[in-house]
Amino acid sequence: MRKETLGNRRIKRMNQRQRKKLRVGEFVELGFVIEGNLIGNPSCDGIGSLIYELIELVESLNLQLGGGISEDRNPQVSFYIAKNKRGSVSAEERQAVANWLSAHPILQQVKANELGDANF
Questions:
Q1: Largest CB tally within 10 Å, which of 41, 55, 57, 73?
Q2: Which positions ≥6 away from 11 have C-beta within 8 Å?
Q3: What is the DSSP annotation of 48-116?
Q4: pLDDT tens figures, 20-79
Q5: Selection from 67, 57, 52, 59 nearest residue 97 by Cα
Q6: Can you tell me the distance from the alpha carbon of 94 to that of 22, in angstroms, rounded to the nearest whole number?
Q7: What is the CATH number assigned to the segment(s) 28-117?
């Protein structure tokens, strides 16, 4: 059963156990995508330290991340951030990650998308 096929009417007819199992309604879990452009052509050590420090920050907030770096003409980073266990990322956690990445010296034009369904 796919989430996008679940309409509001159908969700309202489900009992609490069903909504929790499918993570819909009041049990929806939220995460976000964050992207940024690398400045110039940073060294492998610079990129490695960025990722290592980001992992430390994300773990300290009890979050997890996935994603990486594309090395096209315009190198970019793109990560998906979600809660480590069940639950949603808060607006404060989203802002903390966005602020930290915006302040990093090898990144520019950091954009954190709005919170959205983490179980898409």
A1: 57
A2: 19, 24, 25
A3: HHHHHHHHHHHHHTTEEEEEEEE-SSS-EEEEEEEESSSS---HHHHHHHHHHHHH-TTEEEEEEPPPE
A4: 777 777 777 788 999 999 988 888 888 889 999 999 999 999 999 999 888 777 788 999
A5: 57
A6: 24
A7: 3.30.70.260
